[in-house]
Amino acid sequence: MAQEVADRAMQIFGGMGVCQDAMIPEVFTIVRFCRIADGPDEVHMFQLGTLTARELTT
């Protein structure tokens, strides 16, 4: 969700959205880094499925 908001802000502000004087590029970079550092969505889905299967069999 944060990635979508940062992307939308860049689109709305146009050229100013990519200017280093604005805060938008910094926010976009931080949000993107957090997505990468957190790991791929597929890994989270696999872990969630594994935990759910364990709960159902217990």
Written overview of the protein:
- It is a single chain.
- The protein has helices at 2-13, 24-38, 41-57.
- The chain starts with a helix and ends with a helix.
- Helix 1 runs antiparallel to helix 2 (24-38).
- The relative contact order is 0.11.
- The chain has one domain (2-57).
- It contains 3 helices and no strands.
- The chain is an all-alpha fold and 58 residues long.
- Helices cover 76% and strands 0% of the residues.
Short description:
The protein has 58 residues and is mainly alpha-helical. It has three helices and no strands. The chain has one domain.
Number of strands: 0
| Average pLDDT metric | 84
User: Helix/strand/pairing class, anyone?
Assistant: mainly alpha
- Write down the domain tally: 1
Low-pLDDT runs: none
Shape: rod-shaped
Q: Largest sheet, described in full? A: none
Rounded to the nearest angstrom, the distance between the terminal CA atoms is 34 Å
Helix run count: 3
Task: Give the strand content.
Answer: under 5%
Secondary-structure element pattern, one letter each: HHH
The rounded Rg comes to 17 Å
**Helical residue percent?**
over 70%
Write out key terms for the chains shown.
58 residues, mainly alpha, 76% helix, 0% strand
Walk me through the topology:
Elements: H1 2-13, H2 24-38, H3 41-57
Helix pairs in contact: 1-2
